[in-house]
Structures are given as structure tokens and as C-alpha cells.
Amino acid sequence: MRAPPPGSADALRTAFVEGATTATATCVGALARIAAQNRDLGAMLAVDEAAVLRRAAALDGLADRRLAGPLAGVPVAVKDNICTAGLTTTAGSRALEGFQPPYSATAVERLERAGAIVIGKTNCDEFAMGSSSEHSAFGPVRNPWDRSRTPGGSSGGSAAAIAAGLVPLALGSDTGGSVRQPAALCGCIGLRPTYGRVSRHGLIAFASSLDQIGPLALTIRDAAAALAAIAGPDDLDATSAPVPVPDWGAALRGDIRGVRIGFPRHLLERGVDADVARAVEAAMDVFAARGAVVRDITLAHADLAVPVYYLIATAEASSNLARYDGVRYGHRAAGADSLRAMYEASRSEGFGAEVKRRIILGTFVLSAGYYDAYYLKAQAARAHITAGYASALAEADLIALPTSPTPAFPLGERVQDPVAMYLSDVFTVGASLAGLPAISVPCGFTGAGLPVGLQLVGRPFDEAALFCAADVYERETGPWQPCASGARRRGGA
Amino acid sequence: MPAGREDFPVARVAALARLQVSPAESDLFQAQLTQVLAFVGRAADAALDVAAPDDGGDRAPVRERPDAAGESLGAEAALANAPDAIDAPHLVRVPKVLG
């Protein structure tokens, strides 16, 4: 087996189990990096140092560290829309400022059961609505590779934390690309599991037919280990699928011979940065050289994916966010003299502009007279898009795409132009609508030194195929490192 | 083209969503949402059968659990984040509903 890269979760866990380090030393290092870098990065929102060190000391005190779990002694950052008992969870919103969840999300509980240590919460677009992490009530996240640019979003804090080397693992949530797109823009790995693979219990809901929790990391082995820790059915989430969790480590065998990769080259003809297109095409050459069968395919109705996504996601958001009324938790406006006035003032003070825009659009498309014209047609179009993916995946084992049409864009560039921002998701929303697993892996750099992401989309519950192909690509072009190391990755543009 | 595309009714829809929008926000949202609606409306304009095709996807069965009372959060924890809670009995206080 290959030696894990220094600083990876695998390396830290091995060192912890073998007694070469302690969880306390690992966490002290992570906390020091956060203290040194976060003021500028804005990646972390809440860190409870005392709780982190207590947990680390408890792990260090175990009689047999081998029993501490597959992520023993590994610090993990968790997106701030995933509930953590006793640790403030805001989803990047004034509406939830100071909210202390009474329970942890199932994914967090499972991470901790695997021996991981939640180091803190990561900044994100408010209620995960955005593609740049600028729509946080607590300030934007900056991209570690170029701090004048966004890290992508909405899990931008998680991606920036990985890219800056603060932690080796993070959790994000992916509704329309919110794990994959920031991973691409920050040069790390981001996985959206199959819909139903990971419990959403404790994930603050945005669009429930789309939301999934997924890991971000810098090695495929770490991403696979994190998914293995959080995956599997959960009685607290009826949409979690009763599907066995395989041994994804076995998929990392470095052999992709005969695997059919469908490449919808026609989608790169418009609106894709030339360096991004070149990097992704170069990745196809890498796969072909390792024995994969790469062939051009057509992805039907792909042009409708972004419009359909923004009709369905906003409709679901308008319903999910109706719960923020200032009564049982969250922000309550002062001085209202009626219940309705209190609802309206609390919501209007609590929500930022992008959340209000999406709630208003979603309410509109569900309202009498417009439901049939917009929402119902979007649902039908969603089924056509899903059928298009199923058809493509009948003739290919994987679909390869850019993750984002452009590299990281300057802060402020798209924040007042919602359509331009929504088009950041043009290559990621399709897999979301179809409920398919998809991974973004680092795929070289632009001429300006900005990371590029390659996306692979697989069949339902076949994350193994994603890990297998991504592992081959990592062997060929990795190791992928945080930008703080000053290392430039090999391969790609 | 579905109705409402050209002139997004911000004030009426915001009221449905229990949101207040200032005149400045209303003007900004009007322009932005009119643009957004023209964009997302492509999905509504697409000549696709409303009778959706079988998407061919493997769907896991929906998990069900017994319809029985189980553990709950408890009143104290449930009220711990309430902006205006009364400890005993466990209640939240809100403005008058009736005059």
C-alpha cells in the first residue's frame, strides 16, 4: 500500500494509533493554523478550543488506540448548516445567530464514533444558497489560492479550510454543487454521494429532494474513509436508503482498464474557460493512457438543468424556510404588535438578500396560477434530465465533465447578478437533479495559477466507480497538496 | 409564455412569504427576479412531455418506521433556543393573536 501523504487523515490516524503523535498535538496544530490564517480567510465561524482539547485528551487516554475508529485522532471541520450539539450552528444566517442545536446531525455523530474530532464550524452561503460563499451574514470566505477571489460555494469555508491546510477533512452539503464546485475552485476533492446514501438528520434543510452531505479532502483514501464513516441508513431520516455500505478502500486498486468514460464534449463549446477545457481534455488523455475507454457522448436536456434546478430548489426552499418565524428558535424582531407583524419583521431582519430572492421566487412558482406553468413543468423536465443521465450511464460507466465552467472568480463579480452566479452551477446541478453520485478532483491549474476541477458522475450508489477512477487520476497527477505548502501539482493545464 | 414573466409581482409574493421588502429592495428584486424568471422560464417553455418518462433510475424503497411514540427532545431542550420562553409551564410567548 502507498504511504499516506503527510498531514492526510490517513497519516494522522496511523501516527495516532502507532503512538507517534497524540490527538492533542494534532488538534493543537490545527487550532494554531486556524488562529494564524482564519482572520484573513474567513473559513471558520465557530471553534470551541476547550471542547476540542477535552475530546482529544479523551482519545489520547484510550487504553488501546486501535479501537478508536477509522478516523481516530483526525480533526474535521463541519459546515455550519450541519447541527453540532452544544456548538453554535448558524447556517451563515442572522436568523440563527447564536443557535445551539440540542442534538448533533447523524453524520456528525458517526464521524465522532469513528474517532474524529470536530474542530469547528465552517462559513458558508446563508442556508447554503450561493456559489461563492459571499452570501454569509458573517462575511465572505476567501480563496486560499488567491485571496481576492471566492472559494466557490456554498461550502466555501470547508473547501478553503482544506486548501489552506487547516484540517485534512471537512463536511459540506451539496444541493446543486455546493461541495463539488468549491472543491474545484480550491483545488481539493469534493464528493456528492448518491441521494439517500448519507442521512440528512440534523442538516438544516434547503431543498429536501436535493440536499446531501458530503466530504471534502485532499486524498481519495481520506474522502472514501470519511464517506464510509457517515454513510448508511438512519432511522431518523426516512430518505436514507437501506443500501449496504461497501468497502470503498478495495476500489482504490489503481486499475481503470476497460472502464467506459463518457465525455459530453458538446457541453464545453460555450461559456467554458479555455484553460478549464484544456485541463479536462488533458484528463481524458490520462484516463485513456491508463486503459479507460473514453468516448464522446451526448447528455440530453443538459441546457435545461440550471433553470429546472432553480425552479425546484427555490420552491422547496420557500417551504423549508417557512419555519423561521421567530417563535421557537432563531431571530425575533423586537416591538411587533401582532403575530403576523412579528413573523414578517423577524424573517425580514433575519434573512439576507439572496435568501429573500429565493424564497420570493419559490413562493411565486408555487402560487396559484403559476404552479402548473413553472413548478409542474420543472418537475417534468427534471424527469427528462434524469432519463438523459440514465441513458448516458447505460453506455458509459462514468460521465466526465468540468466541475465549474470557470476557475475562481473575483469577490463581488457576480454578487449582484443572480443569473451569472447561478450559471456557476451549470455542470453540477444535473447530477443533483438526477440524484447521482459525483466527485470533483483537482485537475491542474489555469495559466494564472488557479485550480481546475474535473467532475466524474456515476450510477446510483456506485461511489466505488468514482473512487476507483479518481484514485487512478490521483496516482497519475497527485499528490494533491494544500496551497500553503507552495507546491504546484503536476498534470493538467 | 407563462403569465407573470414580464412584471414580477415582488410586493404581492413577498407578503405571501411573510417578508417585508423596503422600497429600495423591492426595486432591486423587481429587476433581478424579472431577469431570473426569464432565465428559469426556459424550463417552462421547453417542449417536453409533461407526462414524465421513466427515468430508469434505481430507487431505494422509502424507509418507514413504526407509527409509535418514541424518544423526544423534551420540553426544556426544545425551548432552550426560544427567544421568549416561559419555564413553567413550558411555553413560548408571542404577541397577541386576537385583539
Descriptive overview:
The complex is a heterodimer of chains A (493) and B (99). With 493 residues, chain A is of the alpha/beta class. Chain A has a domain at 9-253 and 438-485: Amidase signature (AS) domain (Amidase signature (AS) enzymes). Chain A has 15 helices and 11 strands. An 11-stranded mixed β-sheet of chain A has the order 1-3-2-4-6-5-10-11-9-7-8, with helices on both faces. In chain A, helix 5 packs parallel to helix 6 and helix 9 crosses helix 11 (353-366). The relative contact order of chain A is 0.14. Chain B is mainly alpha-helical and 99 residues long. Chain B has a domain at 10-45: Orthogonal Bundle (Histone, subunit A). Helices cover 35% and strands 4% of the residues of chain B. Chain B contains 3 helices and 2 strands. Chain B has helices at 10-16, 23-45, 75-79, and strands at 85-86, 91-92. Chain B starts with 9 loop residues before the first helix and ends in a 7-residue tail after the last strand. The relative contact order of chain B is 0.09. Chains A and B meet through helix 9, helix 10, helix 11, helix 12 and helix 13 of A and helix 1, helix 2 and helix 3 of B.
**Biggest β-sheet strands, sense, barrel of chain A:** 11 strands, mixed
Low-confidence stretches of chain A: 486-493
Strand content of chain B: under 5%
- The percent range for helix content of chain B is 25-40%
Contiguous uncertain segments of 5+ residues of chain B: 1-5
Rg of chain B over CA atoms, rounded to whole Å, is 23 Å
Strand order of the largest sheet of chain B: 1-2
Radius of gyration of chain A: 21 Å
Layout: helices, strands, pairs:
The complex is a heterodimer of chains A (493) and B (99).
Chain A: H1 9-17, H2 23-41, E1 44-46, H3 49-60, E2 75-79, H4 106-113, E3 117-122, H5 156-163, E4 169-174, H6 180-186, E5 189-192, E6 212-217, H7 220-230, E7 260-263, H8 274-289, E8 293-296, H9 305-320, H10 339-350, H11 353-366, H12 371-395, E9 398-402, H13 418-422, H14 429-434, E10 438-445, E11 451-457, H15 463-477
Parallel strand pairs in A: 2-3, 2-4, 7-8, 7-9
Antiparallel strand pairs in A: 1-3, 4-6, 5-6, 5-10, 9-11, 10-11
Helix pairs in contact in A: 2-3, 5-6, 9-11, 9-12
Chain B: H1 10-16, H2 23-45, H3 75-79, E1 85-86, E2 91-92
Antiparallel strand pairs in B: 1-2
